[in-house]
Amino acid sequence: MLKIAEVERKIKKGFGQPEFNHLEKVLFRALYLENLIYSQWFRLRYRDRVLLGKNCQIHAHSFILRGTGTVEMGNNVIVERGLHRVFFNLEPLSRVRIGDNTWFQTYESDVIFSCKSGAEISLGKNCWFAGGHLSASQRITIGEHTLIGRGCHFLDSDLHKMDNDSELKTAPITIGSHCWFPCNIIVLKGVTIGDHCVIGSGSIVMDDIPDQSFAAGIPARIIRKINDRDKVP
Questions:
Q1: Which residues does 45 contact at the CB level (< 8 Å), separation at least 6?
Q2: Distance (Å, whole) CA 227 – CA 164
Q3: If we measure between CA atoms, which residue out of 74, 44, 70 comes closest to residue 56?
Q4: Do residue 71 and residue 101 come from a single domain?
Q5: 232 domain residue, yes or no
Q6: Which residues are CB-contacts of 206 (< 8 A; sequence separation ≥ 6)?
Q7: Range of the domain at 158
Q8: What is the predicted pLDDT for the residue at 220?
Q9: The CATH number of the domain where 83 resides is what?
């Protein structure tokens, strides 16, 4: 673990500052100690339910875990300190797996993971969240490099039965890699969305979307294919 003096030296070198003034040094040390205390408290509180990879930056104020399910984080996962939080509501034997380099931004809205007993949510590497609600009764899989904005909902079930004699209908959701969900999108049970897809804001996705598609509407329909001309130089 880095000592305060060593961290100060690295920061001064990075910003090119010759030295901290007295007030800056006091504030820096207070912030460093706060983060150190909360980091140790976080590891102690969730030691049996959260498996952390290397170099994860999890701000304890922004991380809430309820239930007895488990969270498995890869390396370099970041949960920012912001106005909102990342909630995990996990029933027994459920699991959320988070890939390397995934980033949770908590300035705009909460990110919520809900898993029924035995369900699983799996995120690929390099994903980015600025909000969203993932509710799994069976399984939700999201590929690498996928971006999810605020107000997006992924629901792999009907959430409730139609009557006492019927069963809850569920079907897994699969999202490919390099997809973008800007905001206020609903993806319903049984949907598969391919790689390199963009879904228009405000859409409700009820059917499968093939690779390299831009889809939008209620229900979402393919507007056009995404090709090389759409790539950023």
A1: none
A2: 48
A3: 74
A4: yes
A5: no
A6: 188, 191, 219, 220
A7: 49-227
A8: 96
A9: 2.160.10.10
**Co-location of 94 and 20 in the same domain:** no
Question: Token pair for residue 170?
Answer: 């569920």
- As given in the structure block, the two tokens for residue 168 are 């809850």
Taking the C-alpha atoms of residue 148 and residue 20, their distance in angstroms, rounded to an integer, is 39
116 and 216 co-located in one domain: yes
Pair (155, 223) in one structural domain: yes
Please give the C-alpha separations between residue 80 and each of 71, 73, 88, 196, 210, in angstroms, as whole numbers: 17, 15, 15, 27, 33
Which residues pair with residue 222 across a beta bridge?
A: 215
Residue stretches of the chain with pLDDT short of 50: 1-2, 232-233
Whole-prediction pTM value? 0.82
147 and 162: one domain?
Answer: yes
233 in any annotated domain: no
Q: How far apart are CA 137 and CA 152, in angstroms?
A: 17
Residues 175, 130 share a domain: yes
Place of tokens 């305060």: 4
151-161 confidence digits (pLDDT tens): 999 999 988 87
Q: Is residue 155 within a helix (H) or strand (E), and if so which, with residue range?
A: strand 153-155
Report CA Rg, the chain. 20
92 cis-preceded (ω within 30 degrees of 0) = no
* Residue of 222, 184, 190, 223 lying closest to 204 (CA atoms): 184
